[in-house]
Amino acid sequence: MRRSREAEQDVHDGTANEHRKLQQNYRRGNKEDHMKRYEPNIIEPKWQAKWAEDNTYGVTEDTSKQKIYASPMLPYPSGTGLHTGHVRNYSITDAVARFYRQKGFNTMSNIAWDAFGLPAENFAIKTGTPPAVSTANNIAYFKKQLLRLGMSYDWSREFDTSDPEYYRWTQWVFSLMYKRGLAYKAEKQQWWCDKCNTVLADEQVNASGKCWRHEGADDPEVTKKSVNQWFFKITDYADEILESTDALNWPEKIKTMQKNWIGRSEGTVVEFDLKGLGADKVKLDVFTTAVETIFGVTFMVLAPEHPLVAEYGQLAENSEEIDAYVQKAIRKSELDREMEKVKTGVKIEGLSAINPMNGNEIEVWVADYVMMGYGSGAIMAVPGEDQRDFDFATKYNIPVVFTTDRGEFTNYQEEIKPNKKAFMLANSGEFDGMNFEDGRKAIIEKIVSIGKGEARVQYKIRDWLISRQRYWGAPVPIVYCEEHGEKLVPEDQLPVRLPEVDNYVPDGKNSSVLAGVEEWVNTTCPVCGKPAKRETDTMDGYVCSTWYLHRYTDAHNDKQAFDPEKANYWFPVDFYFGGDHAVAHLLYIRFFQKVLCDAGLAKDREPIKQLVYNGYINAEDGRKMSKSLGNTVDPMDIIESGYGADALRVFELFIAPYDQDTSWNSKGVPGTYRFLNRLWTLTQEFIEQPKVESSKPKDQFRDIYKVAHTAIKKVTQDLESLSFNTAVAAMMGAVNDLYLIKVKDSYSNTDAWRFALESLAQLIGPFAPHIAEELWHELGHKDSVHLGHWPEWDEKYLVKNSVVYAVQVNGKVRGEVEVPAGADQKTVEEAARANGKVASYITGDPKKVIFVPNKLISFVV
RNA sequence: GGGCGAGUGGCGGAAUUGGUAUACGCGUUUGACUUAAAAUCAAAUGACCACAAGUCUUGAGGGUUCAAGUCCCUCCUCGCCCACCA
Complex ipTM, two decimals? Predict the structure, then answer.
């Protein structure tokens, strides 16, 4: 069940060899026999057990302390387990959580399982294993991995979203939405995946028109199907979400994507009367962002799917031609239509529209360059002012009217388009001579006054489609009664439990297998008690994950989804870590938080203070890590082969800046293991030295203190700015420096060495928590280094006694000189000119001398 | 077509307001230890050059400056996102 091993045999063999080597090293290494060796597979499980026993990472709402809430995005427990690419996200989360915990913050970090979803159901269809069983197995392995990695979660708050005790409250979330008028059922054209046999949200359809779960070359494109569906009214909050996006401390990339997704544009809805084919009383609404061009409208265009096309197209003389065009256009995917360079269309003969501003009668066309999915699916075409309309008009010999006075300009792309706003209106009746802005205002006013339209804000975002025709999800808590219609299941009757079934294959007829479970479907009406039928749709997994960050704050409450007081203590989430779901999940949780606020259940209108969005780690071959390519590495293999979780975690943080994509390197973990081993050895050797009561003043150990304080400063600042890779480099540098000092001078049990080693034990805590704890205890401490132990640096040890200046002549470095700290320009200049090599480049007096304190001196000759 | 990123050794990557480019790690090479290998420790490692000296080097080309990976202009490549958006 767990995972297919064959594909990773090579990797496995490789690590097995490493394992053998390491074991030999332990047995026959040249370290003195009595010295305790660095064996992560002994110390790591030991501390993991101790932390669990002491509940080291358990938290309560301690108002006397400042809180930090740091969480990774909850994982979907797939059958393949975590690979080393996934481990990056968890390592980053844990480094930040541990850093703040060590600094004394009341820090909460958690894990939960996003357990509902299609793969478990598909696995059930294939093998007959119930989703609940395979999901539990998968969770067990994920949990084993994360425990072995030593993540500092409050495990008492763990839950999985497919547990009735959880989805009971997911159904409560639905009720909350329903009661606030934010959940509704509607018949809409929706994306449909033939492989999943279910509808998909817009966000689940990728750029090439395929389902997010079936993106392969052989997979079919999604199609449109008309289905009666449940929606959450996210559009009610579109404006607020959009407006508050800029202020978020989130990556610009994500913010831009969300803003594009909401897609706000301000414009005008204009109503055109129709004429002919018996449509004389019918109005055609169009949306335009350039209403000032309305005098230039010479034709109207309807999208092929527009309802008026179906209605009046068949009445036209050329109905066959229209029908053929529409059929062809609908078969083409939206993507194909967009790729189409040449615009095509068909005129609806006999139908015309009346321009409300000048009464002109104009043609009505069907063309697939207009999309049903935006605006009203119809446009007023202004070929004089719009390139697309112009192309179309030219092709079909439709008149062109310019509504701007362009003077001598003739080139549209080069001259007119960029300067459009500078031209005065023309051919626009009473509005001639007005500039673009005034003209627009005046024309909108006029349209409104004659009752033919209004200003409107148009969004690209649609309401959130939440229902799925699948088994393995939280049932929508609705029943249908003949007398009372659609009724919410009362809260005290939740959860609506998923019944056990034998056959998981959906019939593809717009309903899930639940529809076939009669004893479940047949229920009673909560109002009259008479027979009623259950809703058979389940909710999209994104509904489950929309409120789980709240559940963490009160994970086992059986009276309510969460206690708002507890949630308000922890919220907003200070750091949210992930590398996926740029739009969907991250938009939904913002929406939900605002709903909670309006319902009086939350106070912060934004749930996430800082989004930490990590890049991908690709496989060593440069391709994306995936089970099907056989290029994933199981972190357990690396850990168990003797390198341990700490070395793996350090490498995950060291490999590159966290937000950058990079590639796995199988030699990397041995490298970070070496580093940890050097730190280990340094500490062990120290412990074995007899304690020295030094009579030397502290200043004699200045270089040791300097190394320690430099590292403390750098690592602290780097963690604050999430620069994990340079923090690791700084610690490596410190260890290297201490080795040099050790070799050069004596190595003895002095306060200076103790300070340096204790500092490093603390600094390494967020990165390699087990060795940190072990060394901390080896150095004589009894408590956990992870609770409230973080070193502070003292600037006085960072002050240099002497400074090395670079000496430049005409901008080129020709040498360097060492002078006492604080030397003035004259001193440095003399020292520099005393340098023979420098002097050879300077003949006579320099024209100019540039002096940069503590850096360089530059002679211009 | 539009928007946003990014191009630095053999590789992953460092580099305050412009101020000694290549920190740290991997890899490679040498030495110590070892019967031997591994491990460990010490050291070398951008290119050209036998060495020194010197020259060149941050995608390409120009510019500003005493000084440019960093600022400005032109261009190339790659990645991501959006896209007949009315």
Answer: 0.94
